Predict the 3D structure of the following.
Amino acid sequence: MRRSLWFPRLAVVAVLGCSSAVAVHSTADAAGGRPSATAGRPQPRQVKSRVLRASKALARRAGSALPAGGFGNGVFQVYETPSGSSAGVGQFTVMTGANNPSGAGRDVLFGQGAPGTSYMIVRDVTAGVDYVQGRMLTHANEVSLDDRVSFQQTTGTTRTTHWQAGGFLLAQDVSVTGDTVANSRVTVTTTINDFNTPRHKYQIQYLWDTAIGADDGPVIQPRTAGVPYGPFDPTVGVEQTSTTAGDTVVVDGHVNSGPPSLAVALSGSDNPQAAPDSVKYLCWPDAIFAPLGGYVTDNTRDISDPRSDCLNQQGNADSAVEYLWSADANTSPSGEVKVAASLRMSPPTPYATTMRAGGISLGSATATLTDTATGRPIAGRSVKFSAGGRTACDVVTDADGKATCGGLLGGLLGYDVSYAGDGIWAPSTAHGGLLLRGSRSSGGLAR
Protein backbone atom coordinates (compact mmCIF):
# COMPACT_ATOMS: atom_id res chain seq x y z
CA MET A 1 0.00 0.00 0.00
CA ARG A 2 1.59 3.24 -1.13
CA ARG A 3 0.98 6.53 0.62
CA SER A 4 1.63 9.97 -0.85
CA LEU A 5 4.68 11.45 0.87
CA TRP A 6 3.75 14.81 2.35
CA PHE A 7 0.04 15.05 1.68
CA PRO A 8 -1.71 11.98 3.07
CA ARG A 9 -5.28 12.21 4.32
CA LEU A 10 -5.96 9.46 6.80
CA ALA A 11 -9.29 7.67 6.84
CA VAL A 12 -9.54 5.43 9.88
CA VAL A 13 -11.34 2.18 9.14
CA ALA A 14 -12.11 1.18 12.71
CA VAL A 15 -13.49 2.65 15.89
CA LEU A 16 -10.86 4.66 17.79
CA GLY A 17 -10.18 3.03 21.10
CA CYS A 18 -10.28 -0.48 19.73
CA SER A 19 -7.14 -2.40 20.64
CA SER A 20 -6.90 -4.14 17.28
CA ALA A 21 -4.98 -2.70 14.35
CA VAL A 22 -6.76 -0.27 12.08
CA ALA A 23 -6.15 0.24 8.40
CA VAL A 24 -4.86 3.59 7.22
CA HIS A 25 -5.70 4.73 3.72
CA SER A 26 -4.51 7.81 1.84
CA THR A 27 -6.79 10.02 -0.19
CA ALA A 28 -6.40 13.53 -1.53
CA ASP A 29 -8.96 16.32 -1.27
CA ALA A 30 -9.76 18.74 -4.06
CA ALA A 31 -7.60 21.53 -2.69
CA GLY A 32 -4.30 20.53 -4.21
CA GLY A 33 -4.08 17.19 -2.39
CA ARG A 34 -3.61 18.79 1.06
CA PRO A 35 -4.97 16.80 4.01
CA SER A 36 -8.04 18.55 5.37
CA ALA A 37 -7.81 16.41 8.51
CA THR A 38 -4.53 18.11 9.42
CA ALA A 39 -5.17 21.62 8.11
CA GLY A 40 -3.30 24.24 10.11
CA ARG A 41 -1.20 21.63 11.91
CA PRO A 42 2.53 20.99 11.46
CA GLN A 43 3.52 18.81 8.51
CA PRO A 44 6.44 16.33 8.63
CA ARG A 45 8.68 18.64 6.61
CA GLN A 46 7.95 21.54 8.96
CA VAL A 47 8.53 19.44 12.08
CA LYS A 48 11.96 18.24 10.96
CA SER A 49 12.99 21.65 9.66
CA ARG A 50 12.11 23.18 13.02
CA VAL A 51 14.17 20.55 14.85
CA LEU A 52 17.18 21.14 12.59
CA ARG A 53 16.94 24.91 13.09
CA ALA A 54 16.91 24.34 16.84
CA SER A 55 19.94 22.04 16.63
CA LYS A 56 21.95 24.70 14.81
CA ALA A 57 21.25 27.10 17.65
CA LEU A 58 22.65 24.73 20.29
CA ALA A 59 26.01 25.73 21.72
CA ARG A 60 28.81 23.24 21.06
CA ARG A 61 31.28 22.22 23.73
CA ALA A 62 34.88 23.21 23.05
CA GLY A 63 36.84 20.36 21.53
CA SER A 64 33.78 18.14 21.20
CA ALA A 65 31.14 17.44 18.57
CA LEU A 66 28.46 17.28 21.30
CA PRO A 67 26.05 20.16 21.84
CA ALA A 68 26.10 21.66 25.31
CA GLY A 69 23.54 20.46 27.84
CA GLY A 70 21.73 17.20 28.09
CA PHE A 71 22.70 14.33 30.37
CA GLY A 72 24.45 11.02 29.89
CA ASN A 73 27.26 8.66 30.87
CA GLY A 74 29.84 9.30 28.16
CA VAL A 75 28.50 6.52 25.92
CA PHE A 76 25.09 8.13 25.29
CA GLN A 77 23.94 11.72 25.68
CA VAL A 78 20.21 12.52 25.99
CA TYR A 79 18.62 15.87 25.20
CA GLU A 80 15.08 16.39 26.46
CA THR A 81 12.59 19.24 26.15
CA PRO A 82 12.36 20.83 29.61
CA SER A 83 9.28 21.82 31.56
CA GLY A 84 8.26 25.39 30.73
CA SER A 85 8.91 24.98 27.00
CA SER A 86 6.15 26.03 24.63
CA ALA A 87 5.77 22.56 23.09
CA GLY A 88 6.90 18.97 23.41
CA VAL A 89 7.74 18.75 27.11
CA GLY A 90 9.41 15.38 27.71
CA GLN A 91 10.25 14.72 24.07
CA PHE A 92 13.86 13.60 23.72
CA THR A 93 16.65 12.66 21.36
CA VAL A 94 19.86 10.66 21.78
CA MET A 95 23.42 11.11 20.51
CA THR A 96 26.65 9.18 20.98
CA GLY A 97 28.75 10.48 23.88
CA ALA A 98 32.41 11.40 24.13
CA ASN A 99 33.40 7.83 25.13
CA ASN A 100 31.38 6.05 22.47
CA PRO A 101 33.61 3.94 20.18
CA SER A 102 31.83 5.43 17.15
CA GLY A 103 32.89 8.92 18.21
CA ALA A 104 30.98 11.74 19.86
CA GLY A 105 28.01 13.63 18.50
CA ARG A 106 26.52 11.06 16.12
CA ASP A 107 22.74 10.77 15.98
CA VAL A 108 21.01 7.74 17.47
CA LEU A 109 17.60 9.39 17.22
CA PHE A 110 16.96 12.27 14.84
CA GLY A 111 17.71 15.81 15.93
CA GLN A 112 21.45 16.50 16.27
CA GLY A 113 20.77 17.30 19.91
CA ALA A 114 17.39 19.02 19.46
CA PRO A 115 14.37 16.87 20.48
CA GLY A 116 11.08 16.97 18.64
CA THR A 117 10.47 13.90 16.47
CA SER A 118 10.47 10.99 18.94
CA TYR A 119 7.54 10.94 21.31
CA MET A 120 4.81 9.08 23.19
CA ILE A 121 1.03 8.79 22.89
CA VAL A 122 -1.10 7.37 25.70
CA ARG A 123 -4.64 6.27 24.93
CA ASP A 124 -7.24 6.06 27.68
CA VAL A 125 -9.15 3.31 25.89
CA THR A 126 -12.09 3.47 28.29
CA ALA A 127 -12.54 7.23 27.87
CA GLY A 128 -11.61 7.26 24.16
CA VAL A 129 -8.99 10.03 24.53
CA ASP A 130 -5.42 10.04 23.19
CA TYR A 131 -2.86 12.11 25.10
CA VAL A 132 -0.05 13.20 22.77
CA GLN A 133 3.41 14.38 23.76
CA GLY A 134 3.89 17.67 21.93
CA ARG A 135 1.59 19.45 19.47
CA MET A 136 1.48 16.97 16.61
CA LEU A 137 -2.31 16.46 16.87
CA THR A 138 -3.78 14.75 13.82
CA HIS A 139 -7.10 13.27 15.01
CA ALA A 140 -10.18 14.65 16.73
CA ASN A 141 -9.78 12.54 19.90
CA GLU A 142 -6.20 13.75 20.58
CA VAL A 143 -5.19 16.30 23.20
CA SER A 144 -1.72 17.62 24.03
CA LEU A 145 0.07 16.63 27.22
CA ASP A 146 1.74 20.05 27.13
CA ASP A 147 -1.42 21.47 28.72
CA ARG A 148 -1.24 18.96 31.59
CA VAL A 149 2.39 19.14 32.77
CA SER A 150 2.74 18.94 36.57
CA PHE A 151 6.51 19.10 37.06
CA GLN A 152 9.84 17.73 35.88
CA GLN A 153 12.82 16.60 37.92
CA THR A 154 16.36 15.46 37.17
CA THR A 155 18.25 13.04 39.40
CA GLY A 156 21.73 12.15 38.16
CA THR A 157 21.26 10.78 34.66
CA THR A 158 17.49 10.35 34.91
CA ARG A 159 14.88 12.95 34.04
CA THR A 160 11.26 12.39 35.03
CA THR A 161 8.31 14.32 33.62
CA HIS A 162 4.92 14.22 35.36
CA TRP A 163 1.48 14.96 33.89
CA GLN A 164 -2.07 14.96 35.25
CA ALA A 165 -4.22 13.47 32.50
CA GLY A 166 -7.90 12.74 33.10
CA GLY A 167 -8.37 10.38 36.02
CA PHE A 168 -4.75 9.19 36.09
CA LEU A 169 -1.25 10.42 36.78
CA LEU A 170 1.34 9.89 34.05
CA ALA A 171 5.12 9.85 34.42
CA GLN A 172 7.96 9.34 31.93
CA ASP A 173 11.49 8.45 33.03
CA VAL A 174 14.31 8.87 30.52
CA SER A 175 17.37 7.29 32.10
CA VAL A 176 20.97 6.69 31.03
CA THR A 177 22.62 3.86 32.95
CA GLY A 178 25.88 1.90 32.84
CA ASP A 179 29.58 2.67 33.10
CA THR A 180 30.89 0.77 30.06
CA VAL A 181 29.89 0.51 26.43
CA ALA A 182 28.66 -3.03 27.05
CA ASN A 183 26.24 -2.19 29.89
CA SER A 184 25.12 1.30 28.86
CA ARG A 185 21.40 1.79 28.23
CA VAL A 186 18.98 4.59 27.48
CA THR A 187 15.68 3.41 28.94
CA VAL A 188 12.34 5.17 28.56
CA THR A 189 9.74 4.09 31.14
CA THR A 190 6.10 5.19 31.19
CA THR A 191 4.11 4.77 34.42
CA ILE A 192 0.35 5.27 34.77
CA ASN A 193 -1.29 5.50 38.20
CA ASP A 194 -5.02 5.10 37.65
CA PHE A 195 -7.48 6.64 40.14
CA ASN A 196 -10.63 6.01 38.12
CA THR A 197 -13.49 3.92 39.52
CA PRO A 198 -13.67 1.48 37.91
CA ARG A 199 -10.13 1.52 36.56
CA HIS A 200 -9.45 2.00 32.86
CA LYS A 201 -7.69 0.20 30.03
CA TYR A 202 -4.81 1.90 28.22
CA GLN A 203 -2.54 1.74 25.20
CA ILE A 204 0.92 3.32 25.10
CA GLN A 205 2.83 4.03 21.91
CA TYR A 206 6.43 5.16 21.43
CA LEU A 207 7.34 6.52 17.98
CA TRP A 208 11.11 6.91 17.69
CA ASP A 209 12.55 8.61 14.62
CA THR A 210 15.79 6.68 14.32
CA ALA A 211 18.72 8.38 12.59
CA ILE A 212 21.90 6.36 12.96
CA GLY A 213 24.88 8.62 12.38
CA ALA A 214 24.16 10.50 9.16
CA ASP A 215 21.55 7.97 8.00
CA ASP A 216 17.94 9.08 8.60
CA GLY A 217 16.65 5.94 6.88
CA PRO A 218 18.58 3.20 8.67
CA VAL A 219 17.97 -0.45 7.93
CA ILE A 220 17.18 -3.00 10.64
CA GLN A 221 18.37 -6.46 11.59
CA PRO A 222 15.77 -8.34 13.67
CA ARG A 223 17.55 -10.43 16.32
CA THR A 224 16.75 -12.78 19.13
CA ALA A 225 16.92 -10.85 22.40
CA GLY A 226 20.55 -10.33 23.39
CA VAL A 227 22.03 -11.48 20.08
CA PRO A 228 24.27 -8.65 18.82
CA TYR A 229 24.41 -7.15 15.37
CA GLY A 230 26.07 -9.44 12.87
CA PRO A 231 27.93 -7.37 10.27
CA PHE A 232 27.86 -10.17 7.69
CA ASP A 233 24.19 -11.09 8.25
CA PRO A 234 21.33 -9.75 6.07
CA THR A 235 19.53 -6.54 6.97
CA VAL A 236 15.96 -5.45 6.22
CA GLY A 237 14.98 -2.22 4.50
CA VAL A 238 11.25 -2.85 3.94
CA GLU A 239 8.46 -2.13 6.42
CA GLN A 240 7.93 -4.83 9.03
CA THR A 241 5.62 -5.66 11.93
CA SER A 242 6.81 -8.01 14.66
CA THR A 243 4.71 -9.43 17.49
CA THR A 244 7.45 -11.59 18.99
CA ALA A 245 9.96 -10.64 21.66
CA GLY A 246 13.45 -9.77 20.50
CA ASP A 247 15.74 -6.94 19.52
CA THR A 248 15.47 -4.58 16.59
CA VAL A 249 19.01 -3.59 15.64
CA VAL A 250 19.04 -0.31 13.72
CA VAL A 251 21.99 0.15 11.37
CA ASP A 252 23.39 2.97 9.23
CA GLY A 253 22.92 1.15 5.97
CA HIS A 254 23.31 3.63 3.10
CA VAL A 255 25.99 6.08 4.19
CA ASN A 256 29.10 3.89 4.13
CA SER A 257 30.96 2.22 1.30
CA GLY A 258 31.49 -0.81 3.48
CA PRO A 259 29.94 -2.42 6.56
CA PRO A 260 28.24 0.07 8.91
CA SER A 261 30.16 1.83 11.67
CA LEU A 262 27.29 2.22 14.17
CA ALA A 263 24.46 -0.13 15.16
CA VAL A 264 22.03 0.28 18.06
CA ALA A 265 19.70 -2.37 19.49
CA LEU A 266 16.17 -1.34 20.51
CA SER A 267 14.27 -3.57 22.95
CA GLY A 268 10.91 -3.63 24.69
CA SER A 269 10.54 -4.23 28.40
CA ASP A 270 11.95 -7.45 29.84
CA ASN A 271 8.87 -7.58 32.09
CA PRO A 272 6.56 -10.26 30.60
CA GLN A 273 3.55 -8.30 31.87
CA ALA A 274 4.68 -5.32 29.80
CA ALA A 275 5.82 -7.00 26.60
CA PRO A 276 4.85 -4.86 23.58
CA ASP A 277 1.92 -5.92 21.42
CA SER A 278 3.93 -5.05 18.34
CA VAL A 279 7.14 -3.46 17.09
CA LYS A 280 6.89 -1.78 13.70
CA TYR A 281 9.60 -0.59 11.33
CA LEU A 282 7.82 2.08 9.32
CA CYS A 283 7.95 5.38 7.43
CA TRP A 284 8.20 8.31 9.86
CA PRO A 285 6.49 10.98 7.70
CA ASP A 286 3.45 8.73 7.31
CA ALA A 287 3.46 7.27 10.84
CA ILE A 288 3.00 10.66 12.53
CA PHE A 289 -0.39 11.00 10.81
CA ALA A 290 -1.65 7.53 11.74
CA PRO A 291 -3.88 6.97 14.78
CA LEU A 292 -2.30 5.15 17.70
CA GLY A 293 -1.66 1.56 16.65
CA GLY A 294 -3.26 2.20 13.28
CA TYR A 295 -0.29 2.17 10.91
CA VAL A 296 -0.39 -0.80 8.54
CA THR A 297 3.09 -1.80 7.37
CA ASP A 298 3.74 -2.84 3.79
CA ASN A 299 6.49 -5.47 3.51
CA THR A 300 7.08 -4.58 -0.14
CA ARG A 301 7.85 -0.93 0.59
CA ASP A 302 11.55 -0.10 0.99
CA ILE A 303 11.88 2.81 3.43
CA SER A 304 15.68 2.83 3.69
CA ASP A 305 16.85 3.07 0.08
CA PRO A 306 17.78 6.56 -1.20
CA ARG A 307 15.23 5.96 -3.98
CA SER A 308 12.45 5.36 -1.45
CA ASP A 309 9.14 7.25 -1.55
CA CYS A 310 9.50 7.72 2.23
CA LEU A 311 11.72 10.81 2.36
CA ASN A 312 12.81 13.53 4.78
CA GLN A 313 13.13 17.24 4.02
CA GLN A 314 16.52 16.66 2.37
CA GLY A 315 15.15 14.01 0.04
CA ASN A 316 16.66 11.05 1.91
CA ALA A 317 14.94 7.93 3.22
CA ASP A 318 13.25 8.38 6.61
CA SER A 319 12.48 5.26 8.64
CA ALA A 320 11.40 4.93 12.29
CA VAL A 321 10.51 2.34 14.93
CA GLU A 322 7.18 2.18 16.78
CA TYR A 323 6.36 0.29 20.01
CA LEU A 324 2.77 -0.39 21.11
CA TRP A 325 1.59 -1.80 24.45
CA SER A 326 -1.86 -2.60 25.83
CA ALA A 327 -2.48 -2.56 29.59
CA ASP A 328 -5.39 -2.88 31.98
CA ALA A 329 -5.09 -1.03 35.30
CA ASN A 330 -7.62 -3.48 36.78
CA THR A 331 -4.96 -6.19 36.76
CA SER A 332 -2.78 -4.25 39.20
CA PRO A 333 -3.70 -4.09 42.90
CA SER A 334 -2.41 -0.51 43.04
CA GLY A 335 -3.78 0.54 39.65
CA GLU A 336 -0.27 1.06 38.30
CA VAL A 337 0.68 0.36 34.69
CA LYS A 338 4.33 0.44 33.62
CA VAL A 339 6.03 -0.19 30.25
CA ALA A 340 9.53 0.50 28.98
CA ALA A 341 11.82 0.33 25.96
CA SER A 342 15.56 0.82 25.74
CA LEU A 343 18.43 1.26 23.33
CA ARG A 344 22.04 0.14 23.62
CA MET A 345 25.14 -0.38 21.51
CA SER A 346 25.25 -3.51 19.36
CA PRO A 347 27.61 -5.33 19.48
CA PRO A 348 28.26 -4.46 23.14
CA THR A 349 31.99 -4.76 22.49
CA PRO A 350 33.41 -4.12 18.98
CA TYR A 351 34.43 -7.22 17.09
CA ALA A 352 38.15 -7.98 16.94
CA THR A 353 40.01 -7.15 13.74
CA THR A 354 43.33 -8.31 12.33
CA MET A 355 45.64 -6.11 10.28
CA ARG A 356 48.24 -7.76 8.05
CA ALA A 357 50.98 -5.75 6.41
CA GLY A 358 53.19 -6.84 3.54
CA GLY A 359 56.62 -5.83 2.31
CA ILE A 360 57.47 -2.79 0.24
CA SER A 361 57.61 -3.30 -3.52
CA LEU A 362 58.56 -0.51 -5.93
CA GLY A 363 57.67 2.11 -3.34
CA SER A 364 54.22 0.68 -2.64
CA ALA A 365 52.94 -1.07 0.46
CA THR A 366 49.78 -3.08 1.05
CA ALA A 367 47.78 -4.08 4.10
CA THR A 368 44.65 -6.16 4.62
CA LEU A 369 41.99 -5.70 7.32
CA THR A 370 39.88 -8.74 8.30
CA ASP A 371 37.43 -9.87 10.94
CA THR A 372 39.49 -11.94 13.38
CA ALA A 373 36.84 -14.57 14.16
CA THR A 374 35.84 -15.36 10.58
CA GLY A 375 38.76 -14.13 8.49
CA ARG A 376 36.36 -12.23 6.24
CA PRO A 377 37.57 -8.96 4.71
CA ILE A 378 36.35 -5.65 6.10
CA ALA A 379 35.62 -3.17 3.34
CA GLY A 380 35.12 0.57 3.45
CA ARG A 381 37.41 1.29 6.41
CA SER A 382 40.05 3.98 6.50
CA VAL A 383 43.55 2.72 7.36
CA LYS A 384 46.57 4.91 7.91
CA PHE A 385 50.09 4.20 6.62
CA SER A 386 52.97 5.97 8.33
CA ALA A 387 56.75 5.85 8.23
CA GLY A 388 59.50 7.92 9.76
CA GLY A 389 57.07 9.71 12.05
CA ARG A 390 54.83 11.02 9.24
CA THR A 391 51.58 9.87 7.68
CA ALA A 392 52.09 8.78 4.11
CA CYS A 393 48.57 7.61 3.14
CA ASP A 394 45.04 7.41 4.50
CA VAL A 395 43.36 4.75 2.35
CA VAL A 396 39.91 3.09 2.38
CA THR A 397 39.93 -0.70 2.18
CA ASP A 398 38.37 -2.28 -0.91
CA ALA A 399 35.95 -5.20 -1.16
CA ASP A 400 38.79 -7.57 -0.28
CA GLY A 401 39.73 -5.55 2.81
CA LYS A 402 42.90 -4.41 1.04
CA ALA A 403 44.51 -0.97 1.08
CA THR A 404 47.51 0.14 -0.98
CA CYS A 405 49.78 3.09 -0.30
CA GLY A 406 51.87 4.23 -3.27
CA GLY A 407 54.02 6.69 -1.34
CA LEU A 408 57.73 6.06 -0.84
CA LEU A 409 57.79 4.18 2.43
CA GLY A 410 60.11 2.16 4.51
CA GLY A 411 63.80 2.13 4.64
CA LEU A 412 65.33 -0.19 7.15
CA LEU A 413 62.59 0.52 9.70
CA GLY A 414 59.69 -0.33 7.39
CA TYR A 415 56.25 1.22 7.96
CA ASP A 416 53.24 1.04 10.28
CA VAL A 417 49.61 0.67 9.31
CA SER A 418 46.65 1.19 11.67
CA TYR A 419 42.87 1.11 11.82
CA ALA A 420 41.30 3.35 14.48
CA GLY A 421 38.15 1.27 15.08
CA ASP A 422 34.49 2.22 15.53
CA GLY A 423 31.31 0.89 17.11
CA ILE A 424 31.37 -2.32 15.03
CA TRP A 425 35.06 -3.08 14.59
CA ALA A 426 37.87 -2.76 17.15
CA PRO A 427 41.22 -1.06 16.34
CA SER A 428 44.23 -2.99 15.05
CA THR A 429 47.77 -2.24 13.85
CA ALA A 430 50.59 -3.97 12.01
CA HIS A 431 54.18 -3.31 10.92
CA GLY A 432 55.53 -4.11 7.46
CA GLY A 433 58.51 -3.53 5.24
CA LEU A 434 62.04 -4.80 5.26
CA LEU A 435 61.98 -5.68 8.96
CA LEU A 436 58.64 -7.38 9.65
CA ARG A 437 57.53 -7.30 13.27
CA GLY A 438 54.33 -9.27 12.75
CA SER A 439 50.78 -8.04 13.24
CA ARG A 440 48.76 -7.12 16.26
CA SER A 441 44.99 -7.28 16.62
CA SER A 442 42.66 -5.95 19.26
CA GLY A 443 40.48 -7.98 21.54
CA GLY A 444 36.79 -8.21 20.77
CA LEU A 445 33.62 -10.24 20.81
CA ALA A 446 33.89 -13.71 19.24
CA ARG A 447 30.95 -15.06 17.31
Confidence is low (pLDDT under 50) at residues 1-39, 435-439. The helical segments are 44-57, 284-287. The first strand starts at residue 9 and ends at 12. The first helix runs from residue 44 to 57.
